[in-house]
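Sequence in, structure out. First:
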Amino acid sequence: MKTLQKNRHNFINVIATGAFMLAASVSFAQNKEKQSSPSDATLIRPYHISISQEAITDLRNRVNATRWPEKETVTDQAQGVKLDQIQNLVKYWGTDYDWHKTEDKLNALPQFVTNIDGLDIQFIHIKSKQKNALPLIITHGWPGSFFELLKVIGPLTDPTAYGGKAEDAFDLVIPSMPGYGFSEKPKGTGWGPEKIGNAWDVLMKRLGYKHYVSQGGDWGSVIADAMARQAPEGLLGIHVNMPATVPADIAKALKNGDSAPAGLSVKEKAAFNSLTKLYTKGGGYAGMMVTRPQTLGYGLTDSPVGLASFFLDKFNDWTYSGGNAEKSLTKDEMLDDISLYWLTNTANSSAQLYWENNNNNFNALEQKTADIKIPVAITVFPGEIYQAPKSWAEKAYKNLSYYNEVSKGGHFASWEEPQIFTVELRDAFRGLRGKH
């Protein structure tokens, strides 16, 4: 029993925290080689996405040649993604889905690349036409990407066209994390949240911004917290939608598999129950990535349907959809994201971030939120992994400047509810305008 309890303790710590491949790699490498050289590595260089037709054809062939397992033996999703659902998505992927349309949409945006600490970082940079727009860097998460954020580009940078005021405008910077999307993959260890946070400050200053704010969900929240702890000159404040608020005593009870402590409020008890569910039934994905990302990477890199089902499991769980992600996201939206990971061969490199971090990302003590002195804003979405109670948030973030609970949306907040997300950022950062 003690061994079981110890294993549970370790597991909970863990979870909270080819022809085609040759074609895709050659296309990607050639694209990067054309756009950079050692002499101009630190410059801001234009970036253009170009995935070869051979890679896209190979993806479709692999999808259509899938060897399927038998159907699940339960009527719900207790065993994972249901066979009918993944087959329906994959049938569309192998017939009607069009990556070229997506690529054209991306290439219509101002994309750039610059080298920071030896890695090429790809990012989208949209400057508002409004004077005194507040510079904002937003960081995506896993299994997301910059696709999470495309719907909020217009509302954030051009507010008057989306029901806002000119003074609500942001200049927007959307980078892909190292090992994700079209950013370069780390060649060694060390690229955890602290180093990424430092790189984002370098990026913002390289773009000429003396003052700015930072936002994130999922890994983006962890990185925003890291930036806030570092408090580089010019960072005015952060906004997160997956905050680290769990108090030490609650975290200990969760690790030990204890019942909820006495005296919790209704919202605190609900948060405790949500985290218990994650740790006991929903965290196997992270347990693998934290402990054995390389082993997991072979399957996700070789099988597009393996990758798609791994991601769809989280889309189902983490969207505000009652367990059916297609109520929150379209097939094309999900496949854009899944295809990005496949075509850039980043299933393995993205998982390595879990191995690098290996922290409980909900635990206020482990995330050192007490070290944060700059303003912190939090929005709680009802479909998030857990709904952080205000009582916990106020204890975790001593300089909590904004807290709000909204009525719709989940873990992929900006992707699911771009209008709500936009209004939240306008409100959260309004008090920091004029200080830049």
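Second:
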Amino acid sequence: MDRCCGAPRGRGGLPAVVDAQVHGWDGRPHNQAGPAGEQFVADLLHRHRMVDPSPRPLSADAFELVTPQALAAHVLSAVDRAVLVPAGFEDLFVLGFAAPAWHAELAAEHPGRLALAGELDPADRARARGIGARVGRDGLRALTVLPARRPETALSLRAPWLRRTLIRAEQAGAGVVHIGIAPTARPSRAAPDWAHAGVVAEGDAVPRPRWPEWAEPVRAGSALPVRVRSAGPLPAGAVDVTEVAALATALPKIRFVVGAACAPTASLVRLARLPNVYVLLTDLLIALRRHRVPAAEALGELLAAYGPDRLMFGSGYPLVRPARLIRDLMTFRYPDELRGRFPELDDDVRAALLGGTAARVHGFDLGCATGRTARPRRRGVLSPT
């Protein structure tokens, strides 16, 4: 197996670590486009507090805006490289949520440490025009396929122009396509049971966030515009694995990275027959503490189907800070119920999962890495433009 960085390195003998899912977002109130944006951020914050327990939890203000200093303190202090994955959701946020323009500014603050991915909405052909030029101009290494305007229950990959667009992007240098990888406040109904870690019922230890009065419908006769609360939390995108398989079969030169929670594990296992399909383990790693047995079983099944060279680490930061997930993966052992069913992870497997696979897929050269950031640089806070 081809592992480009399996040798131990870094502090404490850890292997090289690449976080393949980091979001630099701005969910502050002035960027929220009405109640839907506020609800989305509130649900994300609620899930963060359920899945990232810490003596020093992120405050609401720190969670709403990812700054260069926050990236240095929470991500680059624990990993060697990271991939910034965008999500505009323009119906929910005035300037975009995890906007590519803001990602470019974050990457400029940490040269050589962060790779940029672009957005591609398969339902909006007009936005896809000039994708090759954008890839070259912005130095994009990947594209994230997701709805540009708002999260949806399903993501269609059937558009006939999509394949031609992805070929142009690959020829320009973005040969990696992320599918089912985005900030999610709620897993889709098609996701496996373990993916619902952090989705809690009433009466749980962390109360649901309360809506402000202005977000409720106004009284009859008021001259103010009526704001209506949506019926429920905004859903995450689901993916039809049949469409992913058709796309990956038609485009063998492109590496498709699918989220572990975008479809049932059994469906993802069937995709393993395609050598250019990879799985990002973010949601599964997050679920290992709360749903230990089903999540560990899913990890074992994916390892058996894909091997460690097609699975990669991600934190979904700021949903979870990567240091805790790294520790969990380095010390992971299968629960007693699964002992003997799956082989335990050895050092080579952990090295591939934590960084080797993602470095190879995204083209990171870790041989000349300068090491992890010890403390954040003291610079002024940028504002997305």
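Remark: DSSP finds 13 helices and eight strands in the chain.
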